[in-house]
Amino acid sequence: MDAIKSLSLLTRACPYLARTGLAALHGAAGGSGVRGLSTSAVELARCSVCPGHTGQSALLAKASECPVVGPSIRANEAAAPKQAAASKQAAASCPYAGKCGDTPGRAGSAELPASLGSQEAAFDYEGLYQAKLAKKHADKSYRYFNNINRLASKYPQAHTANPSNMVTVWCSNDYLGQSRNPVVVDAMTAALNTYGAGAGGTRNIAGNSGLHVRLEAELAGLHRKEAALVFSSCFVANDATLSTLCSALPDCVIFSDQMNHASMIQGIRHSKARKHVFEHNNLAQLEQQLAQYPRATPKLIAFESVYSMSGTVGRVPEICALARKYGALTFLDEVHAVGMYGPRGAGVAEHYDYDASLRAPAGQRVPGSVLDQVDIITGTLGKAFGIVGGYIAGSSALVDMIRSYAPGFIFTTSLPPPISAGAVASIQYLADSQRERFLQQTHVRQLKADLARAGIPVVPNPSHIVPVLVGDAARAKRASDMLLAEHSIYVQSINHPTVPVGEERLRITPGPGHDAAMRARLVAALDAVWSALGLRRSADWEREGGRCGVGESRTNSELHVGWKRGVDFVWEDHQLKQAHDYELARTGAVPVAPALLPMIWAA
Ligand SMILES: Cc1ncc(COP(=O)(O)O)c(C=O)c1O
């Protein structure tokens, strides 16, 4: 079918074929018509060494009559003698020589244009790959993947390539250990046994099940929105939604935080809409940019709640207020917040109205809340929810529009049943349990305090992410390698282009499974590595004027950090206490070693 379609197009485009029609080609191909042509193409591709062995001479004879292609064929024929020797030599090594009923070289040099022949040097594909890789090695941005096998029964322990070599993982985005939560694993196992491993198709063709519908209802309820739509990942969700929406909005202008994730940047690029990038959390600059356009011009502000590499927080209420003032949509990526913030794990937008969200029945709007003001929320099922997949949540019409138009949603196999079932179980579990969030936050606070005491430079932020500034790509990788090899601790180094050059770092993510002993080992190991490599400590950064919040004045860093002035953590002390007491009442157990408590209650 495709061959017929391409031929019809060719026929219409070519002034010669337009007159003679497909019948001419049919004849040229020896009576086998279109099928004969495609067979020739296959042979041509197969036999790259001796292109003469393709039975295409009749076709070429016909093609030379074409006023468009003909002159080029004749020019190539004139050049052919010079190439004949090379062609003959190539033909001698042809694996099909003598098997295809043609004499090697006969059709090749005399009848094929050079563009179809082997005489002209082909593009050096391998050379290009090597050159691109050499560039990555030269600027130290080449990525090395560590072989880390996280053990479900020993979270947060993993083994390396050698199963007896155990390491402690300190940089996983399985933030709350949900990938091994028995509630999640059991739901996945049951779905696997009932519905099998794969979805069986796209959502449109045989791949839409009750589990997808259930998952989307769960997500819509979590974010108190009318509807939600699930994608293979949040990368795809961001790319597909931004590109589809912003290309549909007439003359749409996009305003994008400078630190936005690659998936949003990709979606913005694909939309081909006009864009403005504003400095991270710089509201004054954002407003200046918005004010350039009439209120009626469609606009979209794309930003994140927790920025994964800095741990800083988007200024959600202020950005929503600007959006209202200038008639813009808000697009908030809560990938690094869902499951972890808000009393039910809906993210930072929910966390702003912690008490009101707790009081409101699940799934219902809280009018006037920050969450209610955000138009489009995107999230992942692959980080705190512990599995894989991504989604958007918003109005029914928006979701239906993206469902109906976004190729990234439509033309791909849907999420397998165990994934949907596990995601539903994980979301429901985290909507109730406060244990994981409480433990994560208390461990984060303690680690940040320990590192501050040791003078290890942490990029200031109010979230669960602990970025330790190194400021040099090679040394960041060296530090990560040393932690692994000498201390059995896995913390990945983060280099350009994920972070700006000069802001390379180690990104640490404490979770509920880390304990005091592990934390003490981590701090001691970092201290040793910092000394061994002579890395800058907090005081050194301060002397140099500071970098990305480290060693900067509090006022400066608060602007960057994005959370409420004078409040150090998104999870405030009284909220942590509330979470603790809720768990005590719910399970009858204190979900934390007593040693952790005084620090929180003392505040
Ligand atoms: C801010 C942000 N958005 C989107 C994504 C993509 O999410 P997913 O891993 O589900 O593709 C990531 C991934 O790390 C991210 O950091």
Automatic annotation (TrEMBL):
Annotated Aminotransferase class I/classII large domain residues: 167-526
Localization terms from the record: Mitochondrion matrix
EC number from the UniProt entry: 2.3.1.37
SUPFAM superfamilies in the cross-refs: PLP-dependent transferases
Family matches, as InterPro entries: 4pyrrol_synth_NH2levulA_synth, Aminotrans_II_pyridoxalP_BS, Aminotransferase_I/II_large, AON_synthase_class-II, PyrdxlP-dep_Trfase, PyrdxlP-dep_Trfase_major, PyrdxlP-dep_Trfase_small
Gene Ontology BP, a term: protoporphyrinogen IX biosynthetic process
Cofactor(s) recorded in Swiss-Prot or TrEMBL: pyridoxal 5'-phosphate
Database matches in Pfam families: Aminotran_1_2
Primary localization class, coarse: mitochondrion
Keywords attached to this entry: Acyltransferase, Heme biosynthesis, Mitochondrion, Pyridoxal phosphate, Transferase
Catalytic activity field: succinyl-CoA + glycine + H(+) = 5-aminolevulinate + CO2 + CoA
PROSITE patterns linked to this entry: AA_TRANSFER_CLASS_2
MF terms (GO), sorted A to Z: 5-aminolevulinate synthase activity; pyridoxal phosphate binding
Annotated Gene Ontology cellular component terms: mitochondrial matrix
Protein family: Belongs to the class-II pyridoxal-phosphate-dependent aminotransferase family.
Descriptive protein name: 5-aminolevulinate synthase
Organism: Coemansia thaxteri
Record gene name: HEM1
